[in-house]
Specification:
By secondary structure, the protein is an alpha/beta fold. Helix content is 37%, strand content 27%. The chain has nine helices and ten strands. A six-stranded mixed β-sheet has the order 6-7-8-3-9-10, with helices on both faces. Strand 4 and strand 5 form a beta hairpin.
Length: 257
């Protein structure tokens, strides 16, 4: 079981979700969910594919608007922000996409420099170089600085994607299926990296996954999303001690011991 980091601040809620609903035609993906996430906390959102996990973090990042309800992130109602306000908020949110979202024609160094050049035009080349090297060191890939994404393994691309979000020093990290498509050893390395990021950068993180090993290794709490609602939220051991057959079957499906 993952220990609770000492820097979690339970009285400081940085993400507050209230009565959130989202549908796509007749597909009611989120059906009135409620949740608070504290500063410094890793929250793993568990659910099968298609249950709305990725929709939730896209709403938190302002990539989708809810049909009803509110998502308050760092004190801002995301759905009500104008373009500039949303852009400012996104500087404080790191989004680690499932496919890493790297530019294939750019080297690792150029991929990491891209958000710096876009958002911090005042930086000198020396400052940018230092930021790139620090971010790569944080994910253990300093040696890959001049490589292209096509020359990296799947796990390395995940790490570079995380480094590119860390370079802006976000307060919140959103991970979309961080271990999807990875072998067990590489998955464990990514889980450890997520915990390292939490410890080193004191981030608040939402980890979207259907992988119980990932949720157990990284989540201070887990929230099980089934049929558009959170059916249980709490510590991993407590949640999976439930007699709810939906939760038990999800546990059995993952073959975790």
């Amino acid at each position: 079981m993952k220990p609770t980091p000492p820097h979690i601040e339970p009285d400081n809620i940085v993400i507050s979700i209230r009565d959130l609903e989202k549908s796509f035609g007749h597909n009611h993906v989120l059906q009135g969910i409620n949740l608070d996430i504290c500063q410094g906390e890793n929250l793993a959102v568990l659910g099968r594919s298609g249950t709305g996990k990725s929709v939730l973090i896209k709403i938190l990042a302002g990539l989708l608007k809810p049909d009803k309800g509110t998502a308050i992130v760092l004190g801002k109602d995301v759905a009500t922000l104008n373009y500039k306000e949303l852009d400012d908020l996104r500087l404080k949110i790191g989004f680690s996409f499932q496919n890493s979202a790297l530019y294939d024609s750019m080297t690792v160094e150029e991929n990491l420099q891209f958000p710096l050049v876009r958002h911090f035009k005042h930086l000198t080349s020396e400052q940018a170089d230092k930021a790139v090297k620090e971010a790569l060191k944080a994910v253990g890939l300093s040696h890959a600085i001049h490589q292209l994404p096509s020359e990296l393994s799947g796990g390395q691309r995940k790490r570079i994607g995380i480094a590119r979000t860390l370079i802006l020093q976000p307060q919140i990290m959103l991970y979309d299926e961080p271990t999807a498509g990875l072998d067990p050893i590489t998955s464990m390395e990514i889980n450890n990296l997520i915990n390292d990021v939490q410890q080193q950068y004191h981030t608040t993180s939402v980890i979207i996954t259907h992988d119980l090993t990932c949720a157990k290794a990284t989540g201070d709490r887990v929230a099980v999303l089934l049929d558009g609602r959170f059916v249980n939220v709490g510590r991993f051991a407590t949640v999976f001690a439930s007699e709810d057959e939906r939760i038990k079957s999800f546990y059995d499906y993952n073959f975790i011991t």
